[in-house]
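Handout, section B. The chain below has 257 residues.
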Amino acid sequence: MSLKGKTAIITGSNSGIGLGVARELAKAGADVVLNSFTDRDEDHKLAEEIGREFGVTARYIKADLSSGEEARALITKSGKCDILVNNAGIQHVEPIETFPPATWDRIIAINLSSAFHTTAAALPIMRAAGWGRIVNIASAHGLTASPFKSAYVAAKHGVVGFTKVTALETAQEKITANAICPGYVLTPLVEAQIPDQMKAHNMSREDVIKNVMLDRQPSKEFATVEEIGGTAVFLCSDYAAQITGTTISVDGGWTAL
């Protein structure tokens, strides 16, 4: 499943799932463009390290995905876009009646609207090249819901719907659009939450993972960023040329319930 010669732009990719996806795409031979809203030396060094490790061209471009203009500029600054992975996202947990409106707007902007803006900018480039792959990182919460996550659930459901529309509009071209719906993934952010959960519930690490954090994930195991990245590589390969407009759940059986 070589992606040599392709250029992949991955939003929100200086850590967590986005970084895992970027690394797997680079491992498959794709040149990669990393992105986040910061512009630190370590962001650029991270891209340099990936480039050296996998023998590809890797760059970092700052863009605040809450801005439609910056989201579109990320694509144009990259110059080439064979593969677009819309991964950027934020979360906030609070009941609807007290959910801050500004936080709602920001979550919708970053988690949903940014995918519209980057896709709109990328499609002309893909059409000119005669090939393209769009992979949207949705969530199990794009297929089901949890209380107190109104903005996140609404945004991820929107991502799934937007993926289907994109697929239909490109169905007769060599462009596909699909969504990956992860359950709980073991990222540094999730790992950092475990000690606090152990303390709050007076449980061992193993018990808090299985009975609290993974309560709705039947496998009782976290997905890994490498598994999400590998799924993205498959969707970008020629083997997946007729897979478009669908969701692939990587959730340990969560949405089978």
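Note. The longest strand covers residues 175-182. Compare this with the example in section A.
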